[in-house]
Amino acid sequence: MKSNDPAPRLYRALHAVVPPLLNALWRPSVHGAEHVPWRGPAILASNHQSVLDVVVMPAALDRPVFFLAKAEYFRGWQRRFFESAGVMPVHRDGGDAAEASLRRGQQLLDEGRLLGIYPEGTRSPDGRLYRGKTGAVRLALRTGAPIVPVATVGTREALRRRATRAPQRPVEVRFGAPLDLRRYAGREHDRFVLRSATDELMYEIMQLSGQEYVDAYAARVKSGEIRVDDGDPAELERLLDPDDLVHRKAS
Predict the structure, then answer these.
(1) Is 248 a member of any domain?
(2) What strand order describes the sheet that includes 29-31?
């Protein structure tokens, strides 16, 4: 069944060209696509291992998938390119800017679109799965849109394989059953609910991907602010954001 969802012209053009190219290079397999609704809004929350992820996952679906990307990319001609490809800017500096980005994501969901989100907020620095940010859950609770956990597998190795001729690992896209967040209805402002539901989402992604889980934010690991191999719980707790710290002490 083909989707009738409207999509930007460039997105439609890319969707006609990219899947055959991916099949020629890596032959990605798709599992669980039936969990993605044929119509209406949904959030596709995925792990993020490679630049290939943003191509491989949308190529697995007939419906167009829209993404939020960091606002630094939206300068000059790049802004028109990304918006034509179904990408919307997101400000990652917290406060009102982040809230404005959530409102734009909510607008897409209110229009009945598929919204792709990487809860880790950045690519994994080492192939492990890192702590999720709460944006996907916030949007789900605000809009009632289901969250479908997604795992891309083998994309990190795929680019390295072509560069180093390393042994082949299959590229896969795995869609899981939507999370049932009905028990959290009306509690989108409760920081404990947001953290608990996000941890639940990351667990489902971990089950799909088979990755090792690290209870720290990937961006802080990549910046050198945290060294997860040190295994110092006190240091990790000190570097968590205030809402998470309150939640941990309460629990």
Answers:
(1) no
(2) 29-31, 172-175, 147-153, 42-46, 114-117, 65-70, 87-90
Q: Do the domain assignments include residue 65?
A: yes
Per-residue model confidence (pLDDT) at position 93: 58
Structural domain includes residue 40: yes
Judge whether residue 174 has pLDDT over 70: yes
Examine the pLDDT at 142 and tell me if it is beyond 50. Answer: yes
Return the higher-pLDDT residue of 211 and 250.
Answer: 211
How much is the pTM? 0.83
CATH number at residue 201: 3.40.1130.10
Shortest CA distance to 173 belongs to which of 69, 70, 49? 49
Number of domains composing the chain = 1
CB 64 within 8 A of CB 86: yes
H, E, C per residue of 89-157: EECCCCHHHHHHHHHHHHHHHHCCCEEEECCCCCCCCCCCEECCCCHHHHHHHHHCCCEEEEEEECHHH
Please give the structure tokens belonging to residue 241: 């954001």
Long-range pairs, 221-229, Cβ under 8 A, ≥24: 221/125, 221/130, 222/122, 222/125
